[in-house]
Every structure is written in structure tokens, then in C-alpha cells.
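Let's sit down with a protein and look at its sequence and fold side by side. Once you have written the record down, we can walk along the chain together.
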Amino acid sequence: MATTVITIVTIPFVLFYMLKDGEKFRDQILKFLPQKKHPDFECLLEDMNNTIATYISGQAIECLFVGTCMIIGYFILGVDYAFLFGVIAGLTNLIPYLGPYIGLAPSFLATVFENPFKGLMCIILVIIVQQIDGNVIYPNVIGKTLKIHPLTIIFILMVAGNLVGLLGIFLGVPVYAISKTILKFVANIYKTNKEQMKIEN
């Protein structure tokens, strides 16, 4: 569990620096490749970079949705510091499974002792927003940004969760998207080489 939490916390920073210093990262890889292969692998690295950036932007949209819904819900319920608690809920939504409940904790603790009914309503609000997010928003937003069918994303999350647990839920979709990009690249290279061989023959 501790290893999983550390990995989840570390991954965003790794992705940030990969995007920030992408040029240096690319140059280091190209040093180990033949000169004639540089254009092809530059295209591959660019596609992978775009895939990661697209995934991050999709996650940002999802967090914005959750945060906005929670802010509105907290205001309707009359929860103190509704905006702050909503922002926390949106940010912690990045953490699979546990995130929504970590985000719920501040608002729940701030209301349950003063008004147990309001604390209960906060729990119900989180459940409703998470159902909409998990079954509608996440598959469609991430699916459209990465050009992956929503049902495929749901299947990936189910399989990755069963095989690897929490870490699989967190990494399943981006790993699938990057793998898809690499396979597409390899297929295009194979097709191009095959066509060139036909022309030479």
C-alpha cells in the first residue's frame, strides 16, 4: 500500500518534468539510435508526448467538473467554506478510489458534529457526483481526448484494477494510450517498409 501511494504521488512530478524537459529527454534517447532512424523516432516521441499531454488535460477537465459540482452542492447544503472544500474534492479526485473520500473528509468533519444530517448529505453528494463522474464524465472526456471508446476505458479500468489494484486503476488508461501509440507507429513503419520493398522489387 505504501509503495502504491508513493508511486501515485511521484508519477505527476515525473510526467511534469518529462513534458517540461521533453527536448532534453528526446536528445538523450536519440544518441543511442542510428542517424537514419532519428526522424521516425522523433515522430514517435512527439506522438507519445501529445498522448501524455492530452491525458493530463482530460484529467484536468474531470477534476474541474467534480470540483464545480461539489462547490455547488456544498453551497446548496449550506456548508461553511464550500468553495475551499469543493476545490479540495476536485484535486483529490486524481487519486483513484480513495481520492473522493479523502476530499470528503474536511467537509464531513466540519459539519457532522454540528449537524449530523448535513454531514450525511455531504456523503450522499459525493456518492452522486462520483457515480456521474465514474460512469459518464470520465469515460467520455478521457475517451474523446485520447480517441478511446468509453466502453474500452471502463473495461481497462476493470481489468487493470483486478490485476494490479489501485496502481492499475491510476495507470491503466495512460499506459494503454501510450501502448496504442507505439503499436500504431510500429505498424506504420512495417507498412512503409513493405511498400518500399515492393517498389524496389
